[in-house]
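We store chain and fold; example below:
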Amino acid sequence: MTAFSPQTLVIDAEAEIARIVDAMRTQLRTQLRRRGLVLGLSGGIDSSVCAALAARAVGPERVFALFMPENDSDPESLSLGRRVAETFGIASAVEDIGPALAAMGCYERRDSFIRQLVPEFGPGWGCKVVIANALAGKGYAVSSLVVQSPAGDKRELRMSAEVYQGIIAATNMKQRTRKQMEYYHADRLNYAVIGTPNLLEYDQGFFVKNGDGAADLKPIAHLYKSQVYQLAAYLGVPEDIRRRPPTTDTWSMAQSQEEFYFSLPYDRMDLCMYGLNNGLGREQVASAAKLSVDQVDAVWADIARKRVATAYLHLPPITL
């Protein structure tokens, strides 16, 4: 037995890619009975790896990628997504969902809840939702609203349940609208839709039900985030994508996944979850993740709470 460390999560990338590609081919041919694959390309590491795997599984000529910017998107996401499609020879199209979201009232519904706290909030303002750090170990991590005025002044405010739920409900329209576009093109081409969550996101419910959580197959949902990066390097995902910090790309202000949902950077979260999943001791995990034992306990408690709170996201429709 070697000591638990980041090396524990190192895998044979070549063998794992071959295993995933073979499974994707089998699923497409036998269970899904579709002739190709559709996915949304965000310019992030997960969708980029899924695009590369899809191209290997069925050939780039039978993969179709969508770029789906909206009013709050970072322009870099579109340029990086295009880089991925070009790198792997995948056909693609841009579907700007901003007008559809505006027509459904996504932005105005969100802003009306924000104005319950910041009456002057309007055009030119930025916003995002951040979560309290679970390492504090003081019970449930509470989310706060951050706004930035056109002059650059920032404020962080506590939200009532009504305001929080209203903001998130409106924002979730973005993921559900993107998935609607993916399934339109999948139906048009007789293709299947790829979901792109990694194990950390899948386990912790970091997805919108019937939004980015909807898919026909999820080829990397068994891999820790650090393992997805290992596959990315082997597959030749462009280096600037591999260097880009994980982002939600959902809010008008820059927003990291750590701020919005997770307690720690992905590499340390991977170690904490691996330790919890495999029954390792707190001291081992603390040493590997460079945390105190109390901090490991706090992260494990946060993982357990999220598993309970988001269990319904994994449920199929309930029938009698």
